[in-house]
Amino acid sequence: MVEINTFSIAGIRKCAQVREGLFQWKGKTIARVWANLASMKVLNNGSSESRKNWEALESSSIPLSQSHYIVLILFLVHFIVIMEDIKVLGFWSSPFVHRVIWALKLKGISYEYIEQDRHNKSQLLVQSNPVFKKVPVLIHGGKPIAESLVILEYIEETWPHNPLLPKDNHEKAIARFWIKFGEDSIASITDLFLRPYKDEERETAIKKAEETITIIEEQGLGDKKFFGGDNIGLVDLAYGCLSHWLEGLEEIVGIKLIDPNKFPRLHAWMQNFKQVPVIKENLPDYEKLLLHLQWRRQQYIK
């Protein structure tokens, strides 16, 4: 713990971090919050008198104990949360949207969720993602970011506390490799259930999907509880659709792809993943999801 006796309030902004993982806030984030407070954007509507009073207090020197210091840090962290304007544009059934929700929840970041109509896209969605016009979109301070995996990286870099990627650069690169592998291969697994296949084509598709799952289980997950070890991370969020959503598709089509006897480690990961409180509390209703997936499959068949 940082030892503090007497120092000016102005000195607080120089405290970039509190060690031992208490509050891992970057100095620039504290500085941004402090600037907002100093200019009185939140307090007293920014009157010149209020700013003078605050500046006078800021330049003074007062005795602060460690407990006082922690209270002040909590105060700053509180304003970090309430002054961050964060919106998520999403659709209730999308596993890509849920990736973003899970990451924000794991970070403890408050946000406003705005449900979108896929068939009647809002002006906000079209303006925020003019290229693809799809969810999810994260809007942070009025600036939009599209594509779920890009958003996950943005969240990790913007709010580095409760890290979802390893600190070691090599391990971080390995994690990103498996995120990329999942991005390139998961669609071929879900398409097996959504798209109509002739018998011979289906057998080929199943074989290809099983080969992909074998690679994920043996080389990606291995004997670990989660892809990064004992704790859930960004790779797990990227593969999250293999739990709730794939299980629904398996039930609809009548094919058990990730069989507990054939792929025991990946099957165990699916169960462990869904039992993480943040994940468990932020999954779409299963029965409602089944109806939606059935409708999606019918759309492909037509």
Automatic annotation (TrEMBL):
Pfam families: GST_C, GST_N. Keywords: Transferase. It comes from the Eukaryota. SUPFAM superfamilies: GST C-terminal domain-like, Thioredoxin-like. The keyword Hydrolase does not apply. One of its GO terms (biological process) is glutathione metabolic process. Residues 84-163 form the GST N-terminal domain. InterPro entries: Glutathione-S-Trfase_C-like (IPR010987), Glutathione-S-Trfase_C_sf (IPR036282), Glutathione_S-Trfase (IPR040079), Glutathione_S-Trfase_N (IPR004045), GST_C (IPR004046), GST_C_Tau (IPR045074), Omega/Tau-like (IPR045073), Thioredoxin-like_sf (IPR036249). Residues 168-301 form the GST C-terminal domain. Transmembrane segments: none annotated. It catalyses: RX + glutathione = an S-substituted glutathione + a halide anion + H(+). GO terms for molecular function: glutathione transferase activity. This is glutathione transferase. Its EC number is 2.5.1.18. One of its GO terms (cellular component) is cytoplasm. Belongs to the GST superfamily.
